[in-house]
Design a protein that fits this description.
Length: about 70
Amino acid sequence: MRVKCVICDKIEAIEDESLVAKRLRNRPIHTYMCNDCSTRITEKTNNRAETGNFRLYRPKSEQDEW
């Protein structure tokens, strides 16, 4: 299966039976991102988190008193 990266528009070939290919076929809302872009974004996000100026908005867990 040929896929195109959302960020850098690089075209790659992935196996038809892989989990990523199945997700792309069955759920059109999923997009493909190449490994280079994925690692670059991960590194930059971790660097921003280390500075302290980065907030990750996660849902607050409500604890029951019971």
